[in-house]
Description:
The complex is a heterodimer.
Chain A lengths: L7 E5 L2 E5 L12 E3 L1 H9 L6 H12 L3 H17 L5
Antiparallel strand pairs in A: 1-2, 2-3
Helix pairs in contact in A: 2-3
Chain B lengths: L2 H14 L7 H9 L1 H11 L2 H10 L6 H34 L5 E3 L2 H4 L13 E4 L3 H13 L3 E3 L6 E8 L2 E8 L9 H10 L6 E5 L4 E5 L2 H18 L4 H14 L5 H11 L2 H15 L16 H14 L18 H16 L10 H19 L4 H16 L6
Helix pairs in contact in B: 1-3, 1-4, 3-4, 9-10, 9-11, 10-12, 12-13, 14-15
Amino acid sequence: MKANSLFLLRKIGEIYLIVPLQKKEFSPQEILTTNETGAFLWNLLQKECTKKELVSAMESYYSIDPDTALKDIDQYLQQLDAIGALS
Amino acid sequence: MKPVETLFCQIMEYSLHSEKILPPETKDAISSSLPELIQYSKRHGTLTSLYTCLCRLAISLSSQEASFFQATVTAYAKGTYQMISFTQKVVSLLKQASLPYYLLKGVSLLSLYSPFECRRFGDVDILIPDPAVRKKAHELLLSHGFTQISNLADHHWEYTFSQHGHTFLLEVHNAVIESQENTAFNQTIQEIFQKVPYEKGYFAPADLSFSTLPVTYNGFYLLLHMLHHFLSSGFGIKLLMDWCLYLEQFHSSMDIPLFQNLLKKTGLEGFYSAMTLLCKNYLGLSKECLVIPIQTSYSQKYLEELMAELLDAGEFGTDTTVRMPVVSQEQRHFYYFHQIHLQMKHRFPKKSHYGFLWPFLWIATIFCFLWNNHFLRKAHTKTILKTARKRQKLINQLKLYQ
């Protein structure tokens, strides 16, 4: 999977938003507010990668156990999918 | 100026310049004055700038303050994204119909800021000087679901467009600013913007191409826009920040003799000098950007009073005090009468068709003004007039249109 290139990550102070700015028209429901971890995963998704790779990257960067990482990633990917941010 | 106002200016200066370093004592002062600074930023539409500064300075926030910033800045950013999307829609329509236009302010200013979400805007402004093209644009907009709404201004038509539960405002301008009390000035402005070439603009984050004014004219327009609001009821620090960043980014690509000529023709050398000096003194505009010589000098005291007036006005002068337009010179009695007449037309759209009723309607309009001041705005007419007189004195020193 990979991030949809029409979506951009925006950082305002410590606020992170994923926005379909490159789409010609979009609704506010297509904007996702996320956090630093979400931004970290989004940057990984700029290249084609698997869920396993995301879990492993999160495990080593944040030193968390694989189950928690997998749970968080699943939830996040669902949110991204719901707004069409994955291609 | 109050110490908190000086501090507010320092933070705004810091927000514009990523290389700037604030001394530790300023950081402490920010922490202790945060509630007041939040109020100032709210009034001036610069809350996102304040928030990014607080993050840069790693100032700790209470959980209440953190939630407030998180919610407000996110909402503002979403508003900006929606406005970008709406701009995209408007310019695409005009482009598809091959109708020439200039995009004013809005998206064209976003690139000056980092992050661009620091610059909020609430409407889209398009300039179409040619009446025939404007008529075509009007028909095009109506056929695409835009609704024209009535407004008092003589320099633009207003349209609303509803989408995703949000109503957007579009202003299609026939002139860059509203007519001022000086007829020769209005005529000159009209002539200047009649034959300006179209320049391509691009806002990369949204892959948005648009047509806009060339750099020198755009700079001159920003100045005119400030003047227009300054004379109406004042403007806050936001427009001054635009001007500061614009000079910093474009000073080397501006046509200096042309800009000087525009200032000379319109008699705005004093206004340009004052606004630029404010940027230098309060927003850290560097000397290298002052490529257009400052021809009028102002005392430090005058500049401080002028800055205090801008800060008092809040964003577009609609803030704490009720304000009324002020004018530059001896034609002011006629100008105020004209304003009363316009307000009368707005308040009594049908009755004002009958000329013989005007004297009664003028009196009724004045009565409504006094009544509203007292009962709705809870402001004393005397205070409003006093503020206007103070502003009048400041304006007189700018020697506008001379």
